[in-house]
Amino acid sequence: MARVLVTGAATGLGRNTVAALLDEGHEAVLHARHHARLSDVHDLLARGAAPVTGDLATHEGTLSVAEQANALGGIDAVIHNAGVYNGPDTLAVNVLAPYLMTCLITRPDRHIYLSSSMHTTGRADTSPITAPGSSTALGYADSKLFVTTLAAALPRRLPGVLSNAVDPGWVPTRMGGPSAPDDLRLGHVTQLWLATTPSPETTGGYWHHQHQQSPHPAVRDDTFQEELLDALSHRTGITLTTR
Ligand SMILES: NC(=O)c1ccc[n+]([C@@H]2O[C@H](COP(=O)([O-])OP(=O)(O)OC[C@H]3O[C@@H](n4cnc5c(N)ncnc54)[C@H](OP(=O)(O)O)[C@@H]3O)[C@@H](O)[C@H]2O)c1
């Protein structure tokens, strides 16, 4: 049995992931944006999911979520699921929050980051992270290229930690829209498997439906990985180090 933190779990893929964790007998820590969002997951809380809350668009909110998770303790895996498709919070929610949670949550053995096939059209340019005052300039594809690269860079920085990125398909959630063509029932399966299955102990992969895919070439580029980690450290004031 594993204890897994899922961010952005009040709806969509995050909610489905928590339900599936509980179905399989795991412990779930369910993150929602704020207390009022927990009313949408009262069924999952009644089944034993432990809530943590915080706005991942803000540095303070993200730090608070990490503190709450650490207070609960014993987090074996984090599924970095929360995401936005556009708007001013794309950098903070899709990139900075997963990075900060990776730095600050105590000793999960596994990190799973929600990517997207759209990351392949992202630009391998970290200047939107480091540009003074930058908060609105990041597109969705760029954000998913960054978080996919973070997943690939982690094994070198945190030896022994399993880190993978997942494209869940284009599925009919609030983000995906009602006419999304892929099967919603499969949208959380790979994340759950990577978070809880003892083997294969795979790391650094980019996955779709439990099969490895080829990511954007920059994802596996050591130089770009280091450039990204430096930019994230510079932007947040927090450096990813071996624990
Ligand atoms: N759906 C797709 O077709 C698709 C395809 C590829 C990748 N993905 C990725 O899969 C992940 C889940 O997407 P989804 O389709 O389930 O989207 P969704 O239904 O829109 O759910 C997104 C979740 O993220 C949370 N969130 C957004 N901004 C937040 C913030 N500032 N603070 C805290 N929580 C925040 C939302 O909370 P609220 O409900 O409170 O807003 C919600 O729980 C995302 O990372 C997305 O990029 C989805």
Structure description:
The chain starts with a strand and ends in a 7-residue tail after the last helix. The protein is 37% helix and 14% strand. It has one domain: Rossmann fold. The protein has helices spanning 12-23, 42-46, 59-72, 90-104, 127-130, 140-157, 189-196, 222-236, and strands spanning 3-6, 27-32, 50-53, 77-80, 110-114, 162-166, 205-208, 211-212. Strands 3-2-1-4-5-6-7-8 form an eight-stranded mixed beta sheet, with helices on both faces. β2 (27-32), α2 and β3 (50-53) form a beta-alpha-beta unit. By secondary structure, the protein is α/β, with parallel strands linked by helices. α3 (59-72) packs parallel to α4 (90-104). The protein binds NADP nicotinamide-adenine-dinucleotide phosphate. The site of NADP nicotinamide-adenine-dinucleotide phosphate has 27 residues, from α1.
Observed structural traits:
243 residues, alpha/beta, Rossmann fold, eight-stranded mixed β-sheet, 8 helices, globular, binds NADP nicotinamide-adenine-dinucleotide phosphate
How many beta strands in the DSSP annotation? 8
| End-to-end C-alpha gap | 23 Å
In the CATH hierarchy, the third-tier topology is known as Rossmann fold
Helix and strand pattern: EHEHEHEHEHHEHEEH
| CATH hierarchy, class | Alpha Beta
Q: Main sheet? A: 8 strands, mixed
**On the 0-100 scale, what is the average pLDDT?**
95
**CATH superfamily grouping:** NAD(P)-binding Rossmann-like Domain
Helix share bin? 25-40%
| Count of individual helical segments | 8
Bound chemical compounds: NADP nicotinamide-adenine-dinucleotide phosphate
- Largest sheet, spatial ordering of strands: 3-2-1-4-5-6-7-8
The Rg value, from CA coordinates, equals: 16 Å
Whole-number tally of structural domains: 1
Beta-strand fraction estimate: 5-15%
The SS-based structural class is alpha/beta
Choose one word for the global shape. Answer: globular
Which stretches of 5+ consecutive residues score pLDDT under 50? Answer: none
CATH architecture label: 3-Layer(aba) Sandwich
Please identify the oligomeric state.
Answer: single chain
